[in-house]
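Tutorial handout. Part one gives the primary structure; part two gives the three-dimensional structure as tokens.
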Amino acid sequence: MANSINTNYGAAIALQNLNKTNASLETTQNRINTGMKVSSAKDNGAIFAIATTQRANMGAMDAVKNSLQRGQSIVDVALAAGDTATSALEEMKALAVNIASSTGDAQTAYLADYTVTNLTTNTSGGTYAIGFAAAPSADATLTAVNTGAITAANATVTNVDAAIKTVTTSLATLGTQSKSVGRQLTFVGKLQDATEAGIGNLVDADLAKESARLTALQSDPPWAVASWP
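Part two.
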């Protein structure tokens, strides 16, 4: 290298090294502060784009998860209502059997209890539909059982049995749907965990490594300045 009174090549090289060290120091400090090695597009455009897309997918999965949770809540309420209806029908059946085996005042008392218990009296032909996204609806149609002067109690028991079958069939459908929604919730949860881990692998900084690098870089500037001629 030629000697020159106008250009100090040694100082220029030292300044370049100092600027490079300062830039690396700034990058390392930013990684430690944010915990991310790719926090913006200027760090790594391709990785940043992939991570942004995956974060958007995470948001979509949150919406799906919320929808499934609402659906599961609807099914749980329907199952609780069905259990209540089944209990009432079982009580009706017991009363109908008592009516068939009693006479006189006892039968009159059982008839009164039966009339009060009959949950289908005012809902003859009514259809109850429970439905939500990701699962078909379950319908149950109940027909009122005659609660007037019961002369054929055995037929009444048969009618109550039919109503119980209708309700329990719908409950079985709802139970299957509840399990299906539960499985889908589990799948979405695992998919979210995997996606989050993938994003972390792409953009998260190794803090132990960055801390060691910061310590090394902080010792460079004095040497760079000292090397100026």
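Part three, for discussion. The chain is about 70% helix and 5% strand. The helical segments are 9-34, 45-100, 104-117, 153-203, 207-218, 220-226.
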